[in-house]
């Protein structure tokens, strides 16, 4: 079993910090504008959507991390990794026998479908809304990790996938769009546990190298 250490990172940590930062700023503004009754206003006021979204997203990353810890105990997984020279992050990087997996976690309610029109590019939809930009964002992350793996000096394939939490996925098959596979937590665990050519020692060494290049956020 892989030992889980601080270098693996904490799933959802940066999203939780951002949500807390926004909450603190909002509360400070309210108390500044209403010194006497600011506390009462805050007690009666519901948190705005953008604050709830950060907390909800962090919870989704935590649920994925819990699932991978439980079902993929022998696979090194790095959580919430900072992209150098950027405010963005990578949710999870798993080093499995089949290669390196860059995992972007999303937590949306509704039915997911990949629409493939006769003309034009396929579209990723959740609850009827176009979420195709998720694929473009993931592609940039995959490119960065691919470059890092090459810099480490190992010829290992790098894959990108989306993992959805609380989303209704198709009952049969694994949906994909533009070469990106889409999983729920159980499907992702099954994929990471698939047989492949990367030995455990090499996977551990690669995890160490990637942890140095993508620090915990």
Structural class: alpha+beta
- Poorly predicted ranges (pLDDT <50, ≥5 residues)? none
Per DSSP, what share of the residues sits in E-state strands of 2 or more residues?
15-25%
When the domains are counted, the total is 1
Could you give the distance between the termini?
25 Å
Biggest sheet architecture: 8 strands, mixed
DSSP helix fraction = 40-55%
Shape: globular
The total count of strands amounts to 8
The mean pLDDT is 90
Following the backbone from N to C, one meets helices and strands in this order, namely HHHEEEEEHEEEHH
Backbone CA Rg: 19 Å
Number of helices: 6
Short description:
The chain has six helices and eight strands; from the N terminus they run H-H-H-E-E-E-E-E-H-E-E-E-H-H. It is α+β, with helices and mostly antiparallel strands and 217 residues long.
Protein model, in words:
This protein is of the alpha+beta class and 217 residues long. The chain has one domain. Helices cover 43% and strands 25% of the residues. The chain is built from 6 helices and 8 strands. The protein has helices at residues 13-33, 38-44, 49-71, 133-152, 185-192, 200-213, and strands at 77-82, 89-96, 99-115, 123-126, 129-130, 158-168, 176-177, 180-183. Strands 1, 2, 3, 4, 5, 6, 7 and 8 form an 8-stranded mixed sheet that branches. A hairpin with a 2-residue loop joins strand 2 (89-96) and strand 3. The protein is globular, with a radius of gyration of 19 Å. The two termini are 25 Å apart. The mean pLDDT is 90.
